[in-house]
């Protein structure tokens, strides 16, 4: 049975499993593919036949990949319509095939895809991988940078890594993420120095900078610590709220029970100024 | 039980599983780690306790990772000795944490490792991931560039991808592979043109370039095809052997049965020259 979408242009490399042994692994491959935008799965002579309930179950929500999978009697038929094929292998073969790492391979597949080529990636049997003559049917080899002393990626893991590199190759910027952090540019120096003024005033009032000769160095250290952190404006607001709480209240007279700290007319000038500009103190 | 190697400098990030549910997943994580040179596994309150035979079995040859795994009652203890921690998560959280992709995260971990920092990566529960307060204990978030419509990496897959990016971050060149193809630089123009001369001589003798007016174009096409392929010297030897076989023998008088083609004195001059220089013809 040919893959049902062999008339449409491919949207990514076909993932081709050669004589996969376990249905669960086929399902895991489908699941890996779906996470990274691949949908064309081809099976060459699966050991336990097809369809496979174990594969469907292991695929979880990727059953659309399972349902569309093509099954072939031999490898040559499975790759007949492809222009370019990678073979995954962990060990060197004595042949002329160029060897790529997965990053390079992902980029090569993406470039070929963009120029209209149909591509595929071969994965071998759980125990034995691909035979030399099967590697011979491919164009190039892709191998993963595993620790040679412990090299045991299974087909689902290898398919996951190649699917991931495929996805990455299509990102404008490989640092792109599905969501990002809020904008954390450091606050302006005016905002930062405003915090320093408030904090240093509260500390001075408490005799922190003693003896007087030590004050310049202590101020310097305090400012260095609070500068290197690179606080953004929302973070400065949080800090100002903390300092305000420490400054205006005490365990004996906490905020909200009519203590002097609640009365803005009783605030130190710096805190009053800060309070007036704060929209949301802690 | 603290990780047994907490006195030695770390060789890579600790992989920390928060309330992992299935022993098989813990084993798969260990196996993913071992492939990419990581060995420090920490488990926070594993659901089914510890040790776990299922984990050991699924770890396959990575049982050294399983045996050295540290078990902790809570997350705070599991990360107490670390200087920097990533939390993996698929969905945005309303917080101040910087968000990185796995490539950036791998590089950040490597840079910190090199400057002597101890690092870790948190992975959440199979069903629920990490809770917000657990993400809060980390420094930064790492998220994978999955298809948002189908986002279902399990902890073993997430650990595999992070372990892989860790390994890659330590390679001088991310295209580096464990083995490489033989040197395939294109043959020199002298070698290539030597092949052209031989081939064109054999074809001319067979009346291939007819009519005569077409010959320049036909020669041009032939040379263009054999040039664009970029054959390396070993490949040219293979081609020369093929041409030689076609030129000197026939099905009626194949090589090795005393046919005229076997007698070097009967070779065309170009083939004789080629034969003299070939060490190993096909």
The CATH superfamily name of the largest domain in chain A is SPOUT methyltransferase, trefoil knot domain
- Structural class, from secondary structure content of chain A? alpha/beta
Low-confidence stretches of chain A: 1-5, 278-282
Roughly what percent helix of chain A?
Answer: 40-55%
Largest interface: A-B, 51 and 51 residues
Number of helices of chain A: 11
Number of domains as seen in the coordinates of chain A:
2
Shape designation of chain A? elongated
Q: Can you walk me through this structure?
A:
The structure is a homodimer of 282-residue chains. Chain A has helices at 23-35, 53-59, 63-67, 75-78, 102-114, 132-136, 155-169, 189-205, 215-228, 233-248, 269-277, and strands at residues 14-18, 41-44, 70-72, 84-88, 99-100, 119-123, 140-142. Chain A contains eleven helices and seven strands. In chain A, strand 1 (14-18), helix 1 and strand 2 form a beta-alpha-beta unit. The model of chain A is unreliable at 1-5 and 278-282 (pLDDT under 50). Chain A has 282 residues and is of the alpha/beta class. Chain A has two domains: 14-170, Alpha/beta knot (3-Layer(aba) Sandwich), CATH 3.40.1280; 189-264, no CATH class.
């Amino acid at each position: 049975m040919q893959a049902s979408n062999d008339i449409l242009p491919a949207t990514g490399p076909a993932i081709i499993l050669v004589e996969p042994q376990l249905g669960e692994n086929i399902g895991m491959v489908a699941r890996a593919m779906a996470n990274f935008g691949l949908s064309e799965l081809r099976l060459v002579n699966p050991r336990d036949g097809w369809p496979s309930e174990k594969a469907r179950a292991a695929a979880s929500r990727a059953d659309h990949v399972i349902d569309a999978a093509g099954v072939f009697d031999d490898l040559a038929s499975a790759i007949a319509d492809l222009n370019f094929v990678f073979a995954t292998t962990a060990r060197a073969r004595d042949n002329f095939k160029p060897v790529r790492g997965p990053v390079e391979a992902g980029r090569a597949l993406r470039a070929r895809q963009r120029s209209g080529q149909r591509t595929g990636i071969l994965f071998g049997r759980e125990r034995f991988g691909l035979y030399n003559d099967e590697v011979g049917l491919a164009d190039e080899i892709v191998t993963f940078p595993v620790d040679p002393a412990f090299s045991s990626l299974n087909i689902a893991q290898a398919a996951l890594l190649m699917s991931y590199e495929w996805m990455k190759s299509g990102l404008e910027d490989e640092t792109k993420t599905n969501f990002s952090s809020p904008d954390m540019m450091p606050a302006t120096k005016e905002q930062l120095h405003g915090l320093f003024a408030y904090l240093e005033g509260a500390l001075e009032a408490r005799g922190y900078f003693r003896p007087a000769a030590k004050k310049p160095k202590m101020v310097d250290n305090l400012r260095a610590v609070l500068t290197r952190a690179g606080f953004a404006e929302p973070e400065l607001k949080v800090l100002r709220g903390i300092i305000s709480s420490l400054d205006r209240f005490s365990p004996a007279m906490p905020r909200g029970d009519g203590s002097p700290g609640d009365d803005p007319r009783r605030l130190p000038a710096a805190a009053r100024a800060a309070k007036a500009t704060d929209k949301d103190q802690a």
